[in-house]
Amino acid sequence: MKPLRLTLLVPLLLAAAGCSHETPPAPASVAPTYAAVARGRIDVEGGLLKLDVAREGTLSAVDVHEGDRVTRGQVLATLDPEPARLQLEAAEAALAQAKAQRELIDGKLKTSQVQAKRLAEAARAGAGDGQSADAAAAAVQSLVAERAGADAAVAMATQKRDAARYELGLRTLRAPLAAQVVKVTAQSGASVSPASGALFTLLPLTPPIVRAELSESYVDAVKVGMAATVSTDGSGADRSWPAHVLRIGRVVGPSTLEDDPQQRANLRTVNCVLAFDQPPPDDVRVGQRVLVRFGKPSNPAKVH
User: What's the whole-number average pLDDT of the chain?
Assistant: First the structure.
């Protein structure tokens, strides 16, 4: 009886082993698809800010260095203020003279008005000469005209004083907004002018954005408010951040991010601006190239 049991057990084991080789393989996964994919770069609204001097002169001081953070109105550099200061002092002296001349006329006018009033009352009462009253009235009218001219002179002198103050203010270059100093090409003692180019390059301390170059073939697939994924490499697996579409341009132009000159000339793109859903890490820098995937990923049917 024992040999019989062994004979039956061996075929059963062989059958089980055969079934194990017939197990179907796991289905292959397919990479996710997106509404569109585009190249882009990190930027800020308005881009980097380049500042130059408004007037020609010699730099007497440079108050910031590369890497410094500045606040709105903070002094960046100063031109030699002496020429503008002299103009301001001359304008203030001219204004003071014009005001003094007007005060002198005001004194004469008040005296003439009193005298003309007395002579007119005496003439009406028959106690004075009517001709003298008329001459006094004419003198008053002449002084009134002089007073108007003095007012005009004071106004003109005031305008020149204000213009001199404005010119003096232009000798000081200030930060127009809170920013970080990216580049400084100025040094004390240098002669500069508006034609010298930018002396300071500032990075505004505003939330970063992404400027993507969307192929015109996929413009209709992307909508304002659409979710997107921004990544610093081609896989999107590492260092990626959620974002959404802020604006889609209406002008088609050549690509500026394509390295191949021939493809850059032939590729027609539309500028698309995206905002991060959350602030990205500090090591994400303006000008850095990124890859933008528009829409949420979806998988087609798995292939067995």
Answer: 85
Say how far apart CA 297 and CA 229 lie, in whole Å.
10
Measuring CA to CA, which residue among 180, 181, 177 is closest to residue 200?
181
Residue whose token pair is 């440079």: 62
Q: What angle, rounded to 10 degrees, do the helices at 130-169 and 82-125 form?
A: 160
Query: pLDDT digit string (tens) for 166-207?
Result: 999 999 999 999 999 999 999 999 999 999 899 999 999 999
Instruction: Please say whether the beta carbons of 183 and 68 come within 8 A.
Output: no
| CA atoms of 44 and 285, how far apart (whole Å) | 10
Bridge partner list, 191: 58
User: Mean of the pLDDT values across residues 249-257?
Assistant: 90
Q: Confirm if 267 and 258 have CB atoms less than 8 A apart.
A: yes
Q: How confident is the model at residue 124, as a pLDDT?
A: 80
